[in-house]
Amino acid sequence: MITMYTGVTLSTDVQKGVFDRFRSMPIWRPAPLVGMLLGDAVRFTIASVVMLTVGFLIGFRPAGGAVGTVAGVLLLLAFAFSFGWIWTLLSLVLRTPNSVMGVSMLVITPLTFGSNIFVDPSTMPRWLQGFVDVNPISHLVTAERGLMSGTATGGQVLTVLVWCAVLVAVFGTLTMRRYGAGR
Asked: Of 33, 37, 29, nearest to 164 (Cα)?
């Protein structure tokens, strides 16, 4: 959910003219966008550490051990970076930070609640199970649970990495096209 703030922050920076200044500098064209997304990885890491700390305090003990836990966090960071490209595109298309936040909620809510995060998909109606099966969030959650519990398969992790590549290829390309064309 915190990935959407990437778009809100970018939209604010675009409104204030920060990215117009970046365009006038002799730097690698995607550097401001990629740098912002990589900088957000710090926020995502802090959020992960806080969540894990709270989990440990209330009794969570990952059967996957330290390696599974670190692998889970790294996979989550890779996915968050990739998913962030959606919000960067929205921030270049929509005019205000509030509109970016509103549209982001329209995108993230069905992806979150139409996944296996909160409910076992076998208890859902058939039509919703079909959506859950192709939802990238469901694949991420399955891989995360597997890594933390020590039961992850290479296929689960690979599926998430493929989603990461697809998200960057599609939304990264669209974002850079939009960014290059100006606002």
From this structure: 37
Residue 13 identity: D
Please give the Cα distance from 112 to 109 (Å, whole number): 5
Cα torsion 87, 88, 90, 95 to 10°: value is: 120
Determine whether 67 is exposed, middle or buried from the number of CB atoms within 10 Å of its CB (0-12, 13-18, 19+). exposed
Which helix (H) or strand (E) segment holds residue 127: the answer is helix 126-134
Number of structural domains (the chain) is 1
Tokens (6 digits) for 120 = 């076992």
Query: Where in the sequence is the domain holding 128, given as residue range(s)?
Result: 4-181
Q: What tokens does 164 get?
A: 């990461």
| Residue pLDDT tens, the chain, 183 long | 777 878 888 888 888 888 788 878 888 878 888 888 888 889 999 999 999 999 999 999 999 999 999 999 999 999 999 999 999 999 989 989 999 999 999 999 999 999 999 999 999 999 999 999 999 999 999 999 999 999 999 999 999 999 999 999 999 999 999 987 654
Q: Identify whether the C-beta of residue 169 lies closer than 8 Å to the C-beta of residue 89.
A: no
Written as one letter, the residue type at 70 is: V
How much is the CA Rg of the chain, to the nearest whole Å? 18
